[in-house]
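S., here's the first fold you wanted:
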Amino acid sequence: MTDPDISATDPDWSREAVRSVWDPGNKLLRALRRYQAARARSGPLARISAKYWVLVHRFWSVMTQSEIHLNTRIAGGLRLTHPTGIIIHPDSVIGPNCMIFHQVTLAGPCTLGGHVDIGAGAKIIGPLTIGDHASIGANAVVTRDVPAHAVMAGIPARDIRKDAQS
């Protein structure tokens, strides 16, 4: 279940801090963010820097076997706890302070609100929108929009919090 103290609007950049030599998820994110920053600047040094960060991104993409496009819009505070096999559609938008576990696929342009937690192996098949503070269970298959604060599980995914209250 999601922690209600984590903001859905204000990014917590400390969640992306590189903490050790081997921190593949955060190093993959750092390469993506530095590439985007270099592309926003102009001049020959910016172009060289962007090319360097493309190579770093490719290295960490191979190490994690993940596909996160360099131009994907990702707000701050994303946690890739176990960053193996994550596939994110280039047109997806990820809100602040989200957490994505291993083997997650965002197929099609998906929009994640703030502080969305996605469990291991979940498949989000868009286009669709997931509301703030939602939780997607492990191996869930989400095929339609998810309201804020929902807890989705199953194939196809349904809101188990709402079902429990019925």
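And the second, which I think is the more interesting of the pair:
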Amino acid sequence: MFETVPLTVGDGGFLYWAIVFFVLALVAAAIGARGVAGISMEIARIFVLVFIVLAIIALLL
């Protein structure tokens, strides 16, 4: 009856990987691997920033 449409901008690659690394960081923090959690959060933060910059550029062009 209802179709599901994925919510993506472009191919959604950077946002997808940002969410994956964020979840990995949460799991690592929950089991006590603080080093892995910190690195995963930094990677997720970079991917989110790249996604935001590319989205703004795409909206302006």
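Why I say that: The chain has a mean pLDDT of 81. Residues 13-60 form one domain.

Talk tomorrow,
H.
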